[in-house]
Specification:
This protein is an alpha/beta fold. It folds into three domains: about 150 residues, Rossmann fold (3-Layer(aba) Sandwich); about 90 residues, Serine Threonine Protein Phosphatase 5, Tetratricopeptide repeat (Alpha Horseshoe); about 140 residues, Orthogonal Bundle (DNA Cyclobutane Dipyrimidine Photolyase, subunit A, domain 3). The protein has 20 helices and six strands. It has a six-stranded mixed β-sheet, with helices on both faces. The relative contact order is 0.12.
Length: about 475
């Protein structure tokens, strides 16, 4: 395959972030390189876009970024699509600074192959997503297209292919990842296309300021948008600056205090790709180098952003049944099976849980935050999931309930981070010390979190202000 490529492309194809899904040389007569944007919905610090631009410059061709908006993304609803929609104008503006044209099409006129034919593409570059269905969306065109198709691992700091098997514990991953960080935790040069694409007359493209869901039938509009977050790269950058300026210094001591507004709240933006982990990590590193935060604060945050987040990507990449109880190690499945018939009193239905109708006002407050703000402090997410395990009819149902609610209401739902989180919270994975993190009674009561005494008096206040401002 390499011999068919121009020398410059041969070098690019060996980049650790790149997966050559369909090889070969670009066909003669190609008019542009297409960046098929899916997960990495941004122009800033986007390795997939950078690869597409470098290919275009090597071939002497312009680059077109294509975003296809489908109406049936798994578990997505109006809340998710409004957040996505809010980010499109930022993408268009920022792509223009790279001399790249941004084209959005929506269902039903959104097919990739039709678009490639219209623009006479020479190559296609996509981004990676390890989740099962998005991965299938990438495999299918790799089999059907008649031109080269590469994908780029754009949403991790360290390329995930460097870890060739499931990494079971974060301290093991950290030991293998830390020697690689000096190579990958560095600012990347801004790459601009050397040629601009001339949009043909009457070329179909969606106006990014309009409602992408307009006219869609059989689309879930029951989950309303939130006002606690506004989508887009520019909003993410603003939130990052505020975090680094006002919260990062105390992050190590406040990150496990849900009653304090001490976290970055960037998970929705990472999920939609409106900001990349490298952008965040470099801002944190800069604050440390300038003496504005301690080594402890920096390390505490980067541990969450890089090691734990990329451990989740590794989990989804290498564990086939990552979204079910079968993802748990056999010892954990055995424990859960042994206690599947334990009495559950009380026992709640999915509908009762969804409406926050339990006896536990702390849990109800967290659930209402999910319903109204689309977000929940990570510390409370663990408690929230553990109580579902206690109250659901069975461990398998608990897993199903937790992921269903997670994906339906959280802005960062249906994300690689959500699946190992459910497993850890329900005691199905080992902690970083290698100890069984199940409760002493298997799947029995998880009790209250250590912070319960300081949180419960604040419940009324949370309810009044939509719970921590989201």
């Amino acid at each position: 395959m390499d011999e068919k490529l121009p020398a410059g492309l041969r070098v690019l194809s060996r980049d650790e972030r790149v997966a050559v899904r369909r090889g070969g040389a670009p066909p003669p007569g190609g008019k542009c390189v297409v960046y098929w944007m899916q997960r990495a919905q941004r122009a800033l610090d986007n390795p997939a876009l950078d690869v597409a631009i470098r290919i275009g410059n090597e071939l002497g061709l312009p680059v077109v970024a294509f975003f296809s908006v489908i109406s049936n993304f798994p578990s997505a609803n109006l809340r998710h699509y409004v957040f996505l929609n809010q980010g499109l104008a930022d993408i268009e503006e920022d792509m223009a600074e790279h001399d790249v044209t941004f084209v959005v099409r929506r269902a039903p006129n959104h097919l990739l192959e039709k678009f490639l034919e219209e623009v006479q593409a020479a190559m296609v570059v996509g981004d990676e997503n390890p989740c099962r269905e998005p991965e299938r969306w990438r495999r299918v065109p790799a089999e059907r297209l008649k031109l080269p198709f590469w994908t780029v691992d754009a949403d991790v700091v360290v390329p995930s292919k460097l870890f060739t098997k499931h990494q079971y514990m974060v301290h093991i991953l950290r030991k293998r990842m830390e020697p690689l960080l000096p190579e990958y935790l560095v600012a990347q040069p801004v790459v601009k296309a050397q040629k601009r694409w001339s949009r043909p007359k009457s070329f179909e493209a969606f106006n990014v300021t309009e409602d992408v869901t307009k006219g869609w039938r059989d689309f879930d509009r029951t989950v309303k948008p939130v006002d606690s977050f506004h989508g887009g790269t520019h909003a993410a950058q603003k939130l990052l600056r505020a975090f680094v300026t006002h919260k990062l210094a105390n992050y190590a001591t406040q990150r496990n205090h849900p009653e304090v507004d001490g976290t970055s709240r960037l998970s929705p933006y990472l999920h939609f790709g409106h900001i990349g982990p490298l952008t965040i990590a470099l801002a944190v590193e800069q604050a440390f180098q300038q003496g504005r935060v301690t080594q402890e604060a920096k390390d505490s945050y980067l541990n969450e952003l890089i090691q734990w987040r990329e451990l989740a990507v590794n989990f989804v990449k290498y564990v086939p049944h990552y979204d079910s109880m079968e993802a748990a190690p056999e010892w954990a499945q055995k424990t859960l099976r042994e206690h599947a018939g334990d009495p559950r009193n009380p026992k709640y239905t999915l509908e009762q849980l969804e409406r926050a109708e339990t006896y536990d006002e702390l849990w109800n407050a967290a659930q209402r935050q999910m319903l109204h703000a689309g977000w929940m402090h990570n510390y409370m997410r663990m408690y929230w999931a553990k109580k579902i395990l206690e109250w659901a009819p069975s461990p398998a149902k608990a897993w199903k309930f937790a992921l269903l609610l997670n994906d339906k209401y959280f802005l960062d739902g249906h994300d690689p981070n959500g699946y190992p989180w459910a497993a850890w919270a329900m005691g199905a994975l080992r902690t970083c010390t290698g100890q069984d993190s199940s409760t002493s009674s298997g799947s029995g009561s998880s009790g209250s979190p250590p912070c319960s005494s300081r949180l419960r008096p604040a419940i009324g206040g949370w309810s009044q202000r939509e719970l921590y401002r989201g």
